Amino acid sequence: MKQGIHPAYNEITVHCACGDTFKTRSTRKEDLSV
Fold first, then answer.
1. What is the pLDDT of residue 14?
2. Do 23 and 13 touch, CB atoms closer than 8 A?
3. Average pLDDT of the chain, as a whole number
4. What string of DSSP letters covers 1-34?
5. Per-residue burial over 1-30, b = 16 or more CB atoms within 10 Å of its CB, e = otherwise
6. How confident is the model at residue 13 (pLDDT cuts 50, 70, 90)?
7. Domains of the chain, with CATH numbers?
């Protein structure tokens, strides 16, 4: 892969409406609620 053309990957926490949470990696910089 070419260096410098891909966005940074960050570890975020996803919060589900059912109360479950899990960690994943995303190009987002903040946590996500679904």
1. 98
2. yes
3. 93
4. --TTSSPPPEEEEEE-TTS-EEEEEES-SS-EE-
5. eeeeeeeeeeebeeeeeeeeeeeeeeeeee
6. very high
7. 1-34 (4.10.80.400)
